[in-house]
Amino acid sequence: xxxxxxxxxxxxxxxxxxxxxxxxxxxxxxxxxxxxxxxxxxxxxxxxxxxxxxxxxxxxxxxxxxxxxxxxxxxxxxxxxxxxxxxxxxxxxxxxxxxx
Length: 100
Fold this sequence. Notes:
This is T9SS type A sorting domain-containing protein. It is a single chain. By secondary structure, the protein is mostly beta strands. Helix content is about 0%, strand content about 50%. The protein has strands spanning about 10-15, 20-25, 30-35, 40-45, 50-55, 60-70, 70-75, 80-85, 95-100. It is globular, with a radius of gyration of 17 Å.
């Protein structure tokens, strides 16, 4: 059984003159484990729809481009090394992983 754990940040802007909530902004949450990774990289997110992810090697070559549906990426065929993972999600920054 897999459990996904995450957080959501909620920002409220309150206008005291008109006594109303002016802006409600939900932030995307994204995390991953383990790092270093051996075979599978697991993703944690509050994003419900599928999203794309790209993985680049240290020379900037795109190694993997994949639509993420089940929140995991099989990295078994990658060589040992450092890779940059770019989630194609608004406001989510690229991150590095170490493949062992």
